[in-house]
Amino acid sequence: MAASLGVADYDVAVVGGGLVGVATAWGLAREGCRVVVLDEGDRAVRASRGNFALVWVQSKGLGLAPYAGWTVRSSNAWGGFSDLLKQETGLDVCFQRPGGFHLALSEKELEARADTLKRLHNQPGIVEYKTEILDHSQVARMLPDIGPEVVGGSYCPLDGHVNSLRLFRTLHTAINARGVTYLPGHRVENITREGGEFRLTTAHGEIRAGKVALAAGNANMRLAPMVGLEAPMRPERGQIVVTERLRPFLNYPVVTLRQTDEGTVMIGDSKEESVDPAGLTIGVSATEAERAVRQFPLLANVNVVRTWSAIRVMTQDGFPIYDESETHPGAFTVCCHSGVTLAANHALIIAPMIARGVLDTSLVAPFSARRFHVQEAG
Amino acid sequence: MFKRLADAGTAVAITVDGKPVAARAGDTVAAALLAAGIDHCRTTPVTGAPRAPYCLMGVCFECLVTVDGIGSRQGCLIPVREGMKVETQIGKREAGR
Questions:
Q1: How far apart are CA A325 and CA A357, in angstroms?
Q2: Residue A138: CB atoms within 10 Å
Q3: Partner of A270 at 20 to 30 A CA spacing, among A166, A284, B26, B80?
Q4: Is the ipTM of this complex over 0.90?
Q5: Would you call B95 and A245 a contact, using CB atoms and an 8 Å cutoff?
Q6: Mean pLDDT, residues A234-258 taken together
Q7: CATH number, domain with residue B39
């Protein structure tokens, strides 16, 4: 039987409408691709609605040096990325890059921090950038409201933050303006490759596309094997405490605490094994708040207006996965924890590779899921 | 806009933004502001729109004021006290107050 000539509806189907999916879809549309984004409905686990919104560099890459370079690259591209989005949509995602802090509440914490950074930056082939260890008085010159228990911290000038809900909205506006088809309520049940094109099964019918980019967060674990790929994930839960809006007092984001462009203070970096997105562990919120008050005593009588928990997208080892399928050419995984930080790379580097149909191994080979199979890794 | 009932309680002296206001025993801060004809008690943190006490039962958070140096207090839940210093809250609250 002659293979039917594929007449795909789209050049690329992006599975997942979160930050990774829409950043990739926007990049693909900029390359001239006809793109469809297949998303779940409102009841899906929405990591992109609950994240902490840091564009963060310091301490990333311990255990996989190229991840540090990949992160620095995105951080450096972020300003241009947000300018492009503003040109296309008129929306400001409030990207700021004043540098950022880790704060230590004991000498032991500060030593552990210094040790982690030393091991990170001693790795062979690590990208060069500066993270300084500062004592209390050095930190106090930049963060005058720290409490007496803050013994010091680390500062990296490449760190920044963004309004991530605005980023999410802006990317959706941008893909819409570029003619990308966004289909919510289209959970992908199955993917096959026939006649040189992919067929994606949903409850609302079949979508045909020349290529597939899996950007479905933790759900990539389920989807990747359908196209001969793998995405080992270990979702974890984080909790965030949100205060009323306050006059600006915090000029730099801290990894556990930041003040948004509109004055709100967000607190939290908890990690729990639980994957129930509806649950909230009060003790965890209490600990986050207690540490925040020790770091910045002026927060003691500030009103908390919200708390929430959200599920982190997390690969088994915490590093990104970018792969092209050997058995299903044209199928790609775009999978990572840091959908905000890496958004610039996904839009401006990964998407053009997918548009060309070939991943540039000089950039992304270290992020293949083949690393999870030590015996087979070349 | 509002007129006090004839049998309102005994006088309690408070200040609003430093100016003396004659409240009555049993008033909440929000009621005292309304009775004194003060038409807004704060402006919103982002757009600066004026806001006045609304629900008077602790739900709407429109009546936030600074009371004796503590910001974002719900005026409708706090009874007046002799010598109390109330300040209207302009825009975002200042952390630490």
A1: 11
A2: 14
A3: A166
A4: no
A5: no
A6: 94
A7: 3.10.20.440
- Taking CA–CA distances from B90, the nearest residue in chain A reads A247
Identify the band that residue A272 occupies on the pLDDT scale cut at 50, 70 and 90.
Answer: confident
User: Which residues from B are below 8 Å from A302, CB to CB?
Assistant: 72, 93, 95
pLDDT tens across B48-81, in order? 999 999 999 999 999 999 999 999 999 999 999 9
Residue A347 Cα, gap to closest chain B Cα (Å): 31
Q: Rounded distance, CA A74 to CA A227, Å? A: 28
Residue A75 lies in a domain: no
Q: Cβ A245–B94 below 8 Å, yes or no?
A: no
Q: Which domain holds residue A269?
A: 236-312
pLDDT recorded at residue A4: 44
**What is the Cα–Cα distance from A33 to A171, expressed in whole angstroms?**
16
Residue A146 sits in the same domain as residue A252: no
Q: Are A29 and A173 in contact (CB under 8 A)?
A: no
C-alpha–C-alpha distance, residues A288 and A269, integer Å: 8
Burial A147-167 (b: 16+ CB within 10 A, else e): beebbbbbbbbbbbbbbbebb
Parallel/antiparallel/unpaired status of strands A35-38 and A181-183: parallel
Number of domains in chain B: 1
Q: Which residue has the tokens 């963004």?
A: A162
Q: How many domains, in total, are found in chain A? A: 3
